[in-house]
């Protein structure tokens, strides 16, 4: 093995580790910033500055009741709880629906997906297309008082999650719709909703970009380690 080459690769690897550590810290800060932004945008004090109306959650959204039977032979992307990344809102993968052995919930474009099992895991996603999902995932239909994406971000707020975590069961806690439907939220007019959604989407894009840089650096590090032993 060439000692000079090994030292150079080791130095590059050390540099990559330092950059990765910095970006990971930056990712954490971005997530904290987003949480703070959600708390601010959806707080009662913030909404007092604009035209708002108080609604029960049942007036803001309803659960979609449509079901999907795999034996129908119709193929859709299927999302299980493990396919949704915690807190990011990303659907990491889908599985073939016709290969599933149980009845699934149907989600249509514009629906918000929310994992009711272990709600503290913060598993939520936005349906961009027709899909089906686990019965442990609620598919929420936005009413005419909210923009679809506004509902998606509302389910990420501490106020919503606190209610969702008033759950039944100890080992496998589940959010109770009877609690959530009675929760009250202040909803601003559509112009304010548009601004809030636009701002939060920009933050999400930055977080996604930072994550992609981390994945790229991880690939570079793996490549360097392989070169070290050539």
TrEMBL record:
InterPro entries: Restrct_endonuc_typeI_TRD (IPR000055), Restrct_endonuc_typeI_TRD_sf (IPR044946), Type-I_RS_S_subunit (IPR052021). Keywords: DNA-binding, Restriction system. GO terms for molecular function: DNA binding. Transmembrane segments: none annotated. SUPFAM superfamilies: DNA methylase specificity domain (SSF116734). Residues 99-208 form the Type I restriction modification DNA specificity domain. One of its GO terms (biological process) is DNA restriction-modification system. It comes from the Bacteria. The keyword DNA-binding applies. The keyword DNA-binding applies. Belongs to the type-I restriction system S methylase family. This is Type I restriction modification DNA specificity domain-containing protein.
């Amino acid at each position: 093995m060439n000692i000079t080459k090994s030292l150079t690769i080791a130095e590059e690897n050390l540099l990559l580790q330092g950059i990765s550590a910095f970006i990971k810290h930056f990712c954490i800060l971005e997530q904290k910033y987003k949480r703070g932004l959600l708390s601010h945008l959806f707080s009662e004090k913030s909404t007092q500055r604009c035209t708002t109306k108080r609604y029960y959650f049942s007036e803001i959204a309803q659960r979609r009741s449509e079901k999907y039977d795999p034996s129908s032979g119709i193929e859709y992307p299927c999302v299980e709880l493990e396919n949704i990344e915690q807190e990011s809102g990303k659907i990491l993968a889908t599985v073939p629906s016709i290969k599933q052995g149980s009845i699934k919930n149907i989600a249509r474009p514009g629906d918000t997906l929310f994992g009711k099992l272990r709600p503290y895991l913060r598993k939520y996603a936005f349906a961009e297309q027709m899909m089906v999902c686990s019965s442990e995932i609620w598919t929420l239909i936005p009413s005419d008082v909210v923009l679809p994406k506004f509902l998606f971000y509302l389910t990420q707020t501490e106020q919503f999650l606190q209610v969702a975590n008033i759950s039944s069961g100890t080992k496998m806690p589940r959010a109770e719709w009877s609690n959530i439907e009675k929760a009250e939220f202040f909803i601003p007019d559509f112009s304010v909703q548009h601004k809030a959604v636009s701002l939060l989407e920009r933050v999400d894009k930055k977080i996604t970009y930072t994550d992609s840089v981390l994945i790229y650096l991880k690939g570079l590090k793996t490549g360097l380690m392989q070169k070290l032993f050539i």
